[in-house]
Predict the structure.
Amino acid sequence: MIFSKTLNNWYSNNKRELPWRQTKDPYYIWLSEIILQQTQVAQGLPYYTKFTDEFPSVFHLANAEESQVLKLWQGLGYYSRARNLHATAKYIANELNGVFPNTYKDLLKLKGIGDYTASAIASICFNRVEAVVDGNVYRVLSRYFGIDTPINSSKGMKEFKQLAQTLIDKNNPADYNQAIMEFGATQCKPQSPNCSICPFNSGCIAFSENRMGELPVKIKSAKAKKKHFNFLVFIDNEENTILEKREGKGIWQNLYQFPLIETTKNLEFNDFETIVKKHPLLHETSFEWSLYNEDAIVHKLSHQHLYTKFWIVKVNAILPESIPKEEIHTYAVPILIGNFIESFNFI
C-alpha cells in the first residue's frame, strides 16, 4: 500500500538511533515500552540505560527488591508502571522460565501490558501483524484521514485500531509500527508540525483544510481536584528525621514521604499551629518549627493538583523509628519529595 511504503521510506531516512532498536529481545523491548508510556524519549532514555545496566535480564529484575525498582524509577511518575513491571518480571522469570509469550493474546495477560504494548512486543520481537496505536499514531491517522472521532472514546479507540490494522505492512510489521510512532513523535508533532516537508502533505486532509491544531479530537477530562498537602520534616536532637511508607492503592503507593497532614484549604502559620501541636510525635515534647516555602508548590498529577508546603519541625528529643538524615537519599520517594530533599540539602 502507498501509505505504508511512503512511511517506511521516510523511516529509513529519518529514524533516530535508539538502543532498543538494536535488539529483538522482548525483555529490552518490553522495558523500553513501559518506560516510554506517558514519557518522551529524551526523558526515558536515561532511565532505560539505568535499568538495563542494573537489571541486564528479566531474572535480575525479578530478583530485585521492589524498593530498589521504585528508587530507580524515581522521577518518571505513574509509579504503578514500576510496580507492574516488577510483578510481571517475577511472573515471567518464575512461572515462564524467563520466556516471554510470543502472541498478542498471551502478552495481554501480563500485568501492566495493554493493547499498545502487546502489539509493540508482538510485532517488533515476533513479527506478528499487530498494529500499534498510541498518542503518536492517533495524531498521524486523525490528521491524514481527517477523523473527528474522539480518540479517548470507546468508538474512537475501536475505529482507529481497525484503521491502523488495515494500514500495517504485513511483510514488515516491526519496522512499520516503529515508523509510524517515530513519524508522529518527530514529524507530525502535536505543536507546529513541519507540514511543508511532510511526505504525506499532498493527501493529508488536516493539511488541506488547515486543521492540524484541531486534530486529534479528545474529550476533555474532568477538572483536576485541588488538594492541600502539608509535610512535616522532623529533625531531632541527633539530626535524625522520619519517613513514612505510603500504603493502600492511592498515589505513590509504597513510596516514602515525610509525615503528611492534608487540609481542606491553604492554612497560614498560626492556623496550622493548632493542628501541628496535636501530632502524636509532639505530645509532651518541646519543638521549634518554621515554614520552608511561603508559596505552595503546585504538583500536577493527572487527576489532582497538590498544593504543597513543607514545615520544618525541630524537636527537642530523640524521635522513635527515625532515620539518620544522610540515609534519606536511599529511599524511593515521589519527585515532589525528592526535589525538596535536594533543595533542603540533606547531607
